[in-house]
Amino acid sequence: MMLVEEKDTLKLKLKEIFGYSQFRGNQETIIQNLLDGRNTFVIMPTGAGKSLCYQLPAMVHDGLAIVISPLIALMKNQVDQMNAYGVNARFLNSTLSKGEITRLKKDCMNGVVKLLYVAPESLNKEENIEFLQKVNVSFVAIDEAHCISEWGHDFRPEYRRIKTMIQQLGNLPVIALTATATPKVQIDIQRNLQMEEADVFVSSFNRKNLYYEVRPKKETKKQLIKFLKDNKGKSGVIYCLSRKKVEEIAQLLTVNGFKAAPYHAGLDPDVREKNQDGFLNEDIDIIVATIAFGMGIDKPDVRFVIHYDVPKSLEGYYQETGRSGRDGLEGHCLMFYSHNDLNKLEKFNKDKSVQERENARVLLQEMEFYAESPVCRRRQLLHYFGEEYKQDNCGMCDNCVHPRERFEGSEFVKIAIEAVKQTGERFGIQHLVNVIVGLEDDYVKSYGHFNLPIYGKGGDENTDFWKSIVRQALIYQYLEKDIDNIGVLKISERGEAFLKKPHNVELAKDHDFTTDIDEEEES
Ligand code: ADP
Ligand code: ZN
C-alpha cells in the first residue's frame, strides 16, 4: 500500500519539476513500482510519456540513475530538456573529451548528478564500470529496450550485453522501456535481462485519431500531388526508401509550388538542421525524408504521414505513422504499396547472415499481409502488438470505411484450423497452405503430409486465397503465433472451441495488388 503522503510527494514533484498537474495513463503506478525497488517493464506508444517514468523517480530517489540509450542525438535532446527543467542530467559517450570526462566523473562521485545517460558501448568499457561501481546508483533505465531483441526491427548486438554490465554494478532495480514490442520481442527482452518476474505495464497502442490507408503504387506522383493539393498548408512527412528518391520527390513538390524540403543522412548537417528547423517553425510544410528523420522529433500538429515506399516492418510503420496527430487531432497515414517494393527490400538483405535475412523476411511478410489484407488496419496493427481490438468497424481506416465484399467463411476457417491440427502445430503459413491446396513439394513429401485427411481439401482455391484465410483466422484469434518458434502457428482456445461448435465467420477477400506496376517507378 502506498502512503498518502508519498503519493502526494510524487504529484508535487511532477508539478514542481515538470510543471504538469496530472500523471498520464499509468505513469504514477509505474513510477511507484520502480521506487518500491521492483523490476519494471514498460510498453507504451511513442509520445505517451515514457521518459517521465524514469526521470521523475531519478529525482525522488537518492543517488544517480543510469539511463541506457542507443542514440547520441536522443541522449543530447533529453539532457538539454532536463537541464532546462533545472535537473542535473549529463551524458557519457564517445563525443566527450578527456577533460569533460574527468569533470563528469567528479560530479557523479560528489552526488551532484541525478541522471546519467550512457550508450551501451560506453557502459561496456572497463574504466566506466569501475568508476560507476564507486558511485551511489539508484536504478538503471533501459530506453528503447526493443534493441535487445533480434526479432524486432532495430536490433543492436551491444544491447544484449547490458545485463552483464548491470550485474557488475550490483543488484539494482531495472526499468526497461520500449514503444514497440510484439509479444515475442517482449519475452525475448525479459529473458535477456533476466527479468521474467518483472511487473509489466502495457499501454494501449490504439491511436484513435489516425486514419490508416493503403493505396496501390500506381501513378503515384499524380496521386501524391492530388493528396497534397487537397491538404494544402498542412504539416506532413513523406517517407521514401532512398536518398535519391527523397531528393527527387522534394524537388517535384517544390516545382509544384509546395513548401517542401528533403531530409536524409547524406545531407550536410547544416542543411539537415535548417530543414528540420524550418519544418518545426512552419516555414516548411512538408518534409520528404528517409527514416533518418523523426526520432525525438516532437511536432504535435503533423497532419499526415505518407509512405511513398513500403517500410521494412510494421514496427517501423507504426512508429513513423505515429508521428502524425500527436495533438490528438486528425492524422492521415497513407501508404503506397506494391509487391515490387517488397522484392526491392528483400534484395537489400542479401549480404546479411542467414538468420538476419530470415528475420527480415518475416518482418516483410507481416508488412505484406497488412497491406493486402481486407481486415480493419487498426485491428491488424494492434493484433501485431499483442492487443485485441474488439470493435467491428473502427470507422478510421480504408478497410472499414470502404469494406471489401464479405462472405460466410466458417468452412474455410475450419479447414485452416484442421490443417494446423493435423500437421501437429509445428508449421508456418506457407506449408499449411501447401497442404490445404494439395501441393506436393519437398516438405509435404518428407513429412508424408499427403496422407493427411486435410491434404488437398482446399484445392478449388489458390494459395493466395488460403494465405488470406489463414491470416484472417490468426487475426480473429482462431489461431495464434507460437512464441518460441518464429513463423509457427498453433490453435488458440477460441480455435478449439470453434472446432467443437463452429459458428458463422465473416471474411473478405484480400486486395489484389499484383496488377499494379507503376511504369514511372521502373525508371
Ligand atoms: P515517449 O518517450 O513515450 O515517446 P516522451 O517521454 O518524450 O514520450 O513524452 C512525450 C511528451 O509528453 C513530452 O513532451 C513530455 O514532456 C509530455 N508528457 C509526459 N508526461 C506528461 C504528463 N504527465 N503531463 C503532460 N505532459 C506529459
Ligand atoms: Zn478499421
Automatic annotation (TrEMBL):
GO MF annotations, alphabetized? 3'-5' DNA helicase activity; ATP binding; DNA binding; four-way junction helicase activity; hydrolase activity; metal ion binding
EC top class named in words = isomerase
- The highest taxon in the source lineage is Bacteria
**What is one cellular component GO term in this UniProt entry?**
replisome
Q: Which cofactor does it need?
A: Zn(2+); Mg(2+)
Q: Which UniProt keywords apply?
A: ATP-binding, DNA damage, DNA recombination, DNA repair, DNA-binding, Helicase, Hydrolase, Isomerase, Metal-binding, Nucleotide-binding, Zinc
- Occurrences of domain Helicase ATP-binding (ranges): 31-199
Q: Which reaction does it catalyse?
A: Couples ATP hydrolysis with the unwinding of duplex DNA by translocating in the 3'-5' direction
A GO BP term here is: DNA replication
EC number(s) for this protein? 5.6.2.4
* Protein's name according to its UniProt entry: DNA helicase RecQ
Residues represented out of the complete protein: 1 to 523 of 730
